[in-house]
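Before surveying the methods themselves, let us examine one representative protein, pairing a chain with its fold in token form.
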Amino acid sequence: MGRTPTIDRDKVLDLAEGILLREGTGGLTIDAVAKAAGISKGGVQSRFGTKNDLVRMLCDRWGQEYEDQFDRLVGEKPTPIQAVEAHIEMSLDLDQADKARAAALMAALIEFRGHIAGLREWYTTRLAALAPDSQEGRRARLAFLATEGAFMLRAFGCIDPTEEETRGLTADLRALLRGAV
């Protein structure tokens, strides 16, 4: 009797992400993922569930990558200012691949509105750490929200700043954070 085949979770998620990036949410189907992975549709469904579940796993993986990078930059207990500085750096220092991933993630979140709750929780946690009862907290909150706006505009291709413009925006946000604007 042969060994039960295993499905490499990360490999399948990589393939699903590739499909999402190339073909958008409409092209991301269980069948397309199964074909790309060389496994049965039933195998994908048994390991990953529905397309919605697959998108949730991609979002969870992207979120964990963000958290890991964030922790490497600021450590365990960053101040609100340090946390927002790291967020500015991570959100605005994107290459083309990162921008494409961000746009794909946003498109998937729009299509699968059930995932908005997790994103809302993430934002609630981040904003709660930026207490609006102090000047520093208000500056941090404003810089955070401005960073998110710039991130979204870039991710959706509404703006395409040059590297120099991005460096200038990053410097402006950091100055805002320190009260130097």
In short: Residues 60 and 118 are 9 Å apart (CA to CA). The longest helix spans residues 51-74.
